[in-house]
Amino acid sequence: MDQQGPLSQERVTAIYDRNARFYDTVEAGVERVALARHRHRLFEDVHGRVLELGIGTGKNLMYLVERDDIELIGIDPSTRMLERAAARARDLGREVRLHAASAQRLPFDDASFDAVVASFVFCSVVNPVAGLCEARRVLRRGGTLRLLEHQRPTTPWLAPLFDLANPVAVRITGANVNRRTEENVEAAGFDDVSSMHLDRFGILRLIEGHNA
């Protein structure tokens, strides 16, 4: 189970602020080849008041343009990433309320959301279990947590390589490549936790849990 990472959350946020202007350009290749085709899964059968953690540059907004059954609120600790999300929302004509906040300290009341979603976020939350506990706190009873994440591979020969690469990855990008996010969701107290493998190495996962 993951706890504290090697960098403070302030330092991780500074990395994302620094990288914001070319973040989408750098990720364009992997987004096109591996990630984009799975993003719509975050919002399947989700409706009502929805919180997106780590909304970043707003890559998921395009899947909500015609969804008038979702009231979206997005948070991100990086103000420069939020500026890009706001611009993307304007371009798409999609209303979204944005807040500069950390997943570890959400500025919302208990049980105030029907669903909490995130894509590739808990790799960069310094204390992921604390962030997931916050997600559970703001979810109503019966609410859904849905995460699209990369995590430590299940392939035995590949997992140690990710462990070796992790210190470098964190310092350059702010993201851990060897998180065990499914285990962290369980540790945060979610019920009926399930995980769908989206690649043959067990790296990409669609993880779901519920606040019973």
Identify the notable features of this structure and list them briefly.
7-stranded mixed β-sheet, Rossmann fold, 212 residues, globular, 33% helix
Describe this structure in words.
- There is one protein chain.
- The chain has 212 residues and is α/β, with parallel strands linked by helices.
- It has a single domain, classed as Rossmann fold, CATH 3.40.50.
- Helix content is 33%, strand content 24%.
- It contains six helices and seven strands; from the N terminus they run ααββαββαβααββ.
- Strands 3-2-1-4-5-7-6 form a seven-stranded mixed beta sheet.
- β4, α4 and β5 form a beta-alpha-beta unit.
- α1 crosses α5 and α4 crosses α6.
- The longest helix is centred in the C-terminal third of the chain and has 15 residues.
- The radius of gyration is 16 Å and the shape is globular.
- The chain starts with 8 loop residues before the first helix and ends with a strand.
- The mean pLDDT is 95.
